[in-house]
Design brief:
Number of helices: 9
Helix content: 25-40%
Strand order of the largest sheet: 1-2-3-4-5-6-7-8
Distance between the termini: 8 Å
Strand content: 15-25%
Order of helices and strands: EHEHEHEHEHEHEHEHH
Length: 262
């Protein structure tokens, strides 16, 4: 099997504190050459940059998750600009809207989302989009920035119709562990229809571990199960899924110096 990229994993999370170094150093021998590590607030934005500086196989994304929109300050944008000067920072994310938990008021979520989309346009960096129970508003706001921003719908579980709308705006669709869940019939039907040239794969570690490891701590080595499910759904070789997803990831995030020892 060819070497993979996990396009979204939170290796800075405390659940990796006990074995982070060992895990990251062992990724390649377990089939994962590179990982994109997004952040959720200013503290994690700093942390993921430090992590990417320490490990050659880790890239960073910086930004403020909708859960933390309420604690956003204008000066945070200045610090994000400064952090973006690091060559290992490849995206703004994860950002977006979350109406499931509503940890921050919706109007504030929208305001902070727009500010970070403006920042991504200014810095010419792609965005990693989180949306939960907020698909319509997410689409409407991204539509305001059509032609100005590019990016990926992370851990996408929405309809194929909405996926097509996002793809028309130039976005990629990233599939994660839920595609393997027993009751995720609609997610599998959607994933089956995503064209290879728009497809990314991810784990969203330490969350959403795929079958057969559901319920356990997730890590980037489990991205193989996502690729395997997509291979079965599309009835094509798993290497084709891996090749296309990593090519798309390298292109979207303008990854420099990546090499795959297949």
């Amino acid at each position: 099997m060819k070497q993979m990229i996990d396009s979204h994993a939170h290796l800075d999370e405390e659940r990796f504190d006990e074995d982070r170094d060992e895990l990251i150093k062992s990724l390649k021998e377990n089939g994962v050459s590179y990982v994109i590590n997004p952040s959720s607030d200013m503290a994690t934005s700093r942390r993921v940059v430090e992590l990417s500086n320490k490990y050659e196989n880790i890239f960073a994304a910086i930004g403020i998750h909708p859960h933390d929109a309420e604690i956003f300050k204008e000066e945070d944008l200045d610090e994000l600009r400064e952090l973006s000067n690091n060559e290992k920072v490849v995206a703004i994310g994860e950002i977006g809207l979350d109406y499931y938990y509503d940890n921050s008021p919706r109007e504030i979520q929208k305001e902070v989302f727009r500010k970070q989309l403006e920042l991504s346009h200014e810095l010419d960096l792609p965005v990693i989009i989180h949306t939960r129970d907020a698909m319509g508003d997410t689409y409407d706001i991204l539509k305001e920035f059509e032609g100005k921003v590019r990016g990926v719908m992370h851990c996408y579980t929405g309809s194929i119709e909405m996926a097509e709308n996002f793809m028309k705006m130039g976005f990629y669709i990233s599939i994660a562990g839920p595609v393997t869940f027993k009751n995720a019939v609609n997610v599998r039907e959607m994933a089956k229809q995503i064209p290879l040239e728009r497809l990314l794969i991810e784990t969203d570690s330490p969350y959403l571990a795929p079958v057969p490891n559901r319920g356990k701590r997730n890590d980037p080595t489990n991205v193989r199960y996502v690729a395997d499910m997509l291979s079965n759904l599309k009835e094509i070789q798993i290497d084709k899924i891996i090749e296309n997803s990593r090519e798309n990831t390298v292109k979207l995030f303008s990854l420099k110096g990546v090499v795959f020892d297949d």
